[in-house]
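Please, structure for the following, as tokens.
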Amino acid sequence: MLARLSLLALCASMASAENYAVLVCGSNEYYNYRHHADVAHAYQVLTRGGVKAENIITMMYDDVPHSSENPYPGQLFNKPASTLAAANDVYASVKDHIDYKGADVTPANFLAVLTGDSAGAGGKKVLQTGPEDNVFVNFADHGGPGIIGFPGNAGFMYEKDLIQALDTMYQKKMYKQLVFYLEACESGSMWVNLPKDRNIYALSAANGEESSWGTYCDHPVVGKKNIGTCLGDLFSVNWMEDDDVTDLSAETLQAQFNKVKKLTTKSHVLQWGQTSMGSEEASVFEGTGKTAPSSVVSEVERSEGDDVDSRDIGLVTRYNLYMQAGAAERPARAAALVAEIQHREEADAKFAALAAKLALPAELDASLSTAHRDCHKPAHEAVVEYCGAYTDYSLKHAKVAAAACNHWKGDSAKVIQAVMSVCGY
């Protein structure tokens, strides 16, 4: 009798197991079009592959589809197409299913979503998962050593906080297995302290010292209209275009990693955590795959110029928009382009001065040391308070704050004093 009851309990547990997903676009403004398109495409891949819409939580600022600079208002495309009929509007499926928009896309809400903290999310949708459920998380935005960005003034998610949130999920038995695909510059730095025994498998678009890259940048044309900016991110496009055409029940996570690593030639895609989970079928987390209509899966020739360093996409976008501008738009777009160039020069000079003030060596060590990780948050907050907010470009210099924490053995007061001095306080 006991054996029978145990079997019934096991069957009930298996029957109630579900697949869940959290999809996050951590940016806003038109030159970050690609992040919105990436996350919209991910939603499309998952729902077409059988993951229930009610089991997906989506965070997206949602300004890009409606931008005056978007030649197709209310639409997003993650790859070029010669005709509009052949194009894949990835926004169509997600537009009515965005759970967190605008100012609600914050690090605090993301942590609340992951850990099932409904009160912390103001009563909005959060994961309500159990020990038999599988969870897939996809995040696309900018990053730096030990940080990933959120829109506007929302601040950063710090490596320590993300790892603690995943630990909370583990302690609360909120998943059977969890897969996390992270698209950001220096994204590998977010995983250096990820435990290898928690049934968590993570990929990073780049190692901890390099940029990730945008793609479909050189000729981002859909139906004869130039979108004017990169349509996707190289790592993200590679795994999702694989999902579009592949039966994921016949492909393991390891096989997908091998494909994506080979295709992502501009940065080093890396595996983290419990890498033995690579033997699992990708369909367990990403849906069935092979769901895109034949009209949108045709090969697109990529040229060398199609891929652009994420730090330079703002500049490339403003240049493209200036070149496409009519007479009425041209002065404003010229001013935006000049302002971007000036900002880049000022940021380079400012952070060079800060590195000199801190007596940092020419080769910066921005590695994530657990001994000094508590220094990172006050150091970055000081930069934002006294020198101005990081931008998509100046985040390349976030390594100065991280390196200073290592060089000065976690002495955040020393770092803050230098920041105040360099930035005029």
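DSSP finds 13 helices and 14 strands in the chain. The mean pLDDT is 93.
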